[in-house]
Amino acid sequence: MMEGRYFNTEDGSRIYYRIGGKGHPIVCIHGFGADSTTFRLTEKILSKDFLVVTLDLRGHGRTVIGNGDLSFNAMASDIEVLREYLDLGKINLLGWSMGGAVAMEYLKDFGQDRVKNLILVETSPKVINDDKWKYGLFKGDFTREMAEEELLSIKNDFRGFVSRFMSKMAPELDSENLKIAIEAMGKNNPDYMARIWENIISVDYRDVLRDFEEPCLVISGNESAFYGVDSGQFLAGMMKKGIHHSISGGHLAPIESPVEFNRAVKSFIFDNYNVIFFI
């Protein structure tokens, strides 16, 4: 059973998190415009074997920000405060989509010694593509100009942006579920989303991944419209102990194929703790 709670930060923010299960801790970080409910199937499945912690990042869900800091640095600091608050020791850190960028920011800011294993799901260290980088958003087609256009759209027509974004992210969703997803994301504060989008399009964590020495599992959705399988394979190859695994589904593969996704995560973590698990 997952339990919802809050913890306070020094800048006056109240960060909502959920916790449940027992065992090695997994901290799960959601993507842009989402919240901790993204991991409801992961919570249900993995909390049988692990202590699962999810949270609503600043600007998302039930979390209330204090001084208005919506930077990835502040989000990473919240994760560290939560890790210390719950006395988790070394954590398994899982970041999905934008959550992968926040996880990489955490590594940059706090080092590797707090992380036992890293799981990156449908993400990239740099979403903007250029002449020297083709593993960013939209399978290498997302340019700086496109990113700036989307920023203007978030500021001036957030509902229109959400509709286009969700349609690109989940092209296989039926019309009813697509409408539900658009309504959910559309509840976010446009000003917050614009400021967070500026974070997304400005960061570059390639050096962070190259320096990471602990095991990392990179998971791709076979039918993703956001990142190609080749992108996931390249990311895994950037790291000393990186491995790649592809599963059925698109960018929402952890929701579309929860059994396959959670089994891959469980197997990876248990392998690196030298634990045998049974089906």
Write a brief structural summary.
Helix content is about 40%, strand content about 20%. By secondary structure, the protein is of the alpha/beta class.
Features:
single chain; 279 residues; alpha/beta; Rossmann fold; eight-stranded mixed sheet; 11 helices; 8 strands; 18% strand; globular
- How many DSSP H or I helices? 11
N to C succession of SSEs: EEEHEHEHEHHHHHEHEHH
Name the helicity range.
40-55%
Tell me the name of the CATH homologous superfamily of the domain at 3-125 and 204-272. Alpha/Beta hydrolase fold, catalytic domain
Widest sheet: strand ordering? 1-2-4-3-5-6-7-8
Largest sheet: 8 strands, mixed
Q: Please name the CATH topology of the domain at 3-125 and 204-272.
A: Rossmann fold
Total number of beta strands: 8
Q: What report would you give on this structure?
A:
The structure is a single chain. With 279 residues, the protein is α/β, with parallel strands linked by helices. The protein has a domain at 3-125 and 204-272: Rossmann fold (3-Layer(aba) Sandwich), CATH 3.40.50.1820. 42% of the residues lie in helices and 18% in strands. The protein is built from eleven helices and eight strands. The protein has an eight-stranded mixed beta sheet, with helices on both faces. Helix 9 links the parallel strand 7 (216-221) and strand 8. The protein is globular and about 45 Å long.
